[in-house]
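Same chain as my last thread, 291 residues:
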Amino acid sequence: MVTRGYSPEKRTEALIEALPYIQRFSEAIVVVKFGGNAMVDPDLSRTFAEDIVLLRSVGLRPVVVHGGGPQIGEQLSKVGKTTEFRNGLRVTDHETLDVARMVLVGKVGREIVGQINTHGAYAVGISGEDGGLITAEALDPDLGFVGRITDVNPNIVERLLAEDLTPVISSIGADGKGQSYNINADTIAGAIAGALGAEKVIYLTDTSGLLDDVDDVESLIARTSVEELKQKLDAGEIGGGMLPKLTSCVDALETGASSAHLLDGRIPHVLLLELFTDAGIGTMITKEPQQ
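reply #2:
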């Protein structure tokens, strides 16, 4: 799909290869979790925005969910706070929560919306607090204001999609009393994908995908199933930042999404390579084992 510098013949071949996928995924909802290095690399942020606009332009309905771990960490350092992580989750006190909300909603979300909207008035920024989208409770007292999702009401997202707009969702939720919670963006992406019955939920990561051996980049698992993934999770074979991603994949597929994908967000236009080419890229997780 990436045709810059290619001959007219190669460009034509790329378009022909993409056509059946464009037809197949017309009107499909695709939830994309945007994070990692791609968020802090200006070139990757630009190509990500281009991909989202192209998906929308050819008939897909993208929904963006973003985190902002590096940006939150940078802002906390500026105010002299240290950060502790447990199982890939940031321990969040009152001050850290205020910083997270400020960074996610007021900075990162606005920047993503701005990048997309350089191509037209396509994107709208919201958080999980808006329209009762994400209801949450405390996940663990030891983690402070880190939230566990108790309910997803996708009405506000569906209304934006019906208006041909792209929701850009910050990973904050709230309980019934208005208490805000910092929620892992991977978890929110999976929950929203399940609630929307998304065709795909895609996680942009800082690795090539799920590795059978974390020390061997050649051990990429190109395709696996929910059941196989659950066996790995139950056996304790997955930890760190990959744990919430893969748990979220399982939750998404068990609650309504059709497939989940782990892609290397450091590759320009990786969304297009996955969705519109025969080879695909990264790891695909399906409900049933591959036949």
